[in-house]
Amino acid sequence: MGADLGRTILDKCREWGVRMVGFAAADAWDEPPFEPWPPIEFHPKAIFPGCRTVIVLGLPVTLPILETSPSIWYQELYKNLNAQLDERAYRLSQLLNELGHASVYVPRDGYGTVELLVESPYAFFSHRHAAYLAGLGTFGINNMLLTREYGPRVRFVSVLTAAELPPGGPMEKGLCVRCMRCAKACPVQAIGDVAYPEASIDKRRCATRSVELKKRYRSPCGICIKVCPVGEDRKLFGHGNMTYDEEGTPPELWRAWEHVRRYGSL
Ligand code: B12
Ligand code: SF4
Ligand code: SF4
Q: Which ligand is nearest to the CA of 74?
């Protein structure tokens, strides 16, 4: 039964253009695989009592567009993906409700405006932790979830459901190669090198930069996800060993990025 429903969900998602899909058992939050772990009130069973499975969907962030960031091009892609993620997740939750499995979707972000995140950089539910438990990827030094397919260049959304589905489990081997490119490239030195990469992010600095970029119509920043060498998407675009400075970038690409940044934003 669970396996059949799982197949139906995967087929539907594929039909809707979502190829990255994972299932995490709601009980898995009770046994933190590492510390610090989201407090109990952030767990799916606390947010949606009766929840048995979290379904995580991911859509890729197109590398060459992200490479122009900060830019209006990346801002538009970000908004587009956000809308698509919310739409797909709502649609999936409704499909499950129609099949008799109580379900709700959690929006891909869940905050009113980025200014709020400077003081309190949390949402009520973390999609990265769900994606980790579903086996879609592992955490990197940049505090993002890295996937085989797209490295950290993937955005997530979740559906909490009463249905029992065959869960994935965390990947055995971490994907981060600890090259520290993300830390070196961060323009506000928000990424540190400590034992717990998660806790090493200075969220206030990052959120403050985002507030500034927003005023210029070129938020979010995203530099720490564009420089990460992990991800098969690099092969497709032939952007393997880029260093993202003028020397390490083919001149035609550098010119293209400068051109894009000159228009539509401040
Ligand atoms: C708030 C937020 C931010 C804030 C704060 C960052 C953060 N919290 O990590 C700011 C504005 C800085 C930010 C920036 C970015 N973000 Co953001 N962000 C979120 C958001 C909305 C909520 C994250 C959250 O609150 N999780 C819940 C808490 C429990 O988890 P946590 O913060 O990781 O907490 C851990 C530690 O901080 C620690 N901890 C230590 N002390 C405390 C105290 C308390 C009270 C708590 C709760 C926890 C805690 O324990 C926790 C468990 O390990 C998520 C979307 C979502 N709803 O999941 C996107 C999300 C994490 N962001 C994303 C992205 C891509 C970015 C950016 C690259 C910008 C961009 N879009 O280009 C940057 C990268 C910054 C970085 N290197 O970390 C993606 C990540 C995708 C991926 N592949 O991993 C997400 C998942 C959005 C999405 N739907 O895909 N973000
Ligand atoms: S999004 Fe930008 S400011 Fe925030 S951590 Fe990444 S590189 Fe630094
Ligand atoms: S840029 Fe390097 S250190 Fe940073 S997350 Fe990616 S692989 Fe890890």
A: 1
User: 105 alpha carbon to ligand 2 midpoint, in Å?
Assistant: 27
Q: What is the pLDDT of residue 200?
A: 76
**What is each CA distance from 262 to 25, 71, 258, in whole angstroms?**
47, 9, 6
Give the distance (Å) from ligand 3 centre to CA of residue 243. Answer: 13
Per-residue pLDDT, 50: 98
| Residue range 170-195, pLDDT digits in tens | 999 999 999 999 999 999 999 985 55
The radius of gyration of the chain from alpha carbons, rounded to an integer in Å, stands at 19
Pocket of ligand 1 (CB under 6 A): 36-39, 42, 78, 108-111, 114, 117, 121-123, 125-128, 142-145, 152, 154-157, 198-199, 201, 203, 206-207, 210, 220-222, 224-225
Beta bridge partners of 145: 139
pLDDT at 142 over 80: yes
HSE at residue 209, side-chain half, CA atoms within 13 A, is 15
Q: What's the longest Cα–Cα distance across the chain?
A: 58
- Can you tell me the distance from the alpha carbon of 116 to that of 110, in angstroms, rounded to the nearest whole number? 11
Q: What is the pTM of this model?
A: 0.95
